[in-house]
Amino acid sequence: PVSGDERFTTFVASNRTVCGITAASRLFCWGYRSGSANATPGLPAGSVSVPTPIIDSVPMREVHIGSEGAK
After folding, report:
1. Beta-ladder partners of 13
2. Cross-sheet strand order for the sheet of 46-54
3. What is the pLDDT of residues 28-66, one digit of tens each?
4. pTM (predicted TM-score)
5. Which of 13, 23, 37, 60 could be 27's S-S partner, Cβ–Cβ 3.0 to 4.6 Å?
6. 8 Å CB contact between 42 and 27
7. On the CB side of 48, how many CA atoms lie within 13 Å of its CA?
8. DSSP-assigned letters across all residues of the chain
9. What angle do CA 13, 16, 21 make, to 5 degrees?
């Protein structure tokens, strides 16, 4: 289960980060983010245990995760 009230329609995962897109096309990510400039923008560095909104104003249809985080 994912904490919070969001209803996710899509998930992608790496070995450190999980991202999901909600039914309302909002992107959320959680997990571990390194301090790298290439890591998931908007996700605080370190460990995040709850879904955190990323790029809140842009509707999302898909997301890809590389070795450094979501793109």
Report:
1. 18
2. 8-13, 17-22, 27-33, 46-54
3. 888 887 666 555 666 777 788 888 888 766 788 888 776
4. 0.75
5. 60
6. no
7. 22
8. --SSS--EEEEEE-SSEEEEEETTS-EEEEEEE-S-TTS-TTSPSEEEEEEEEESTTS--S---EETTEE-
9. 35
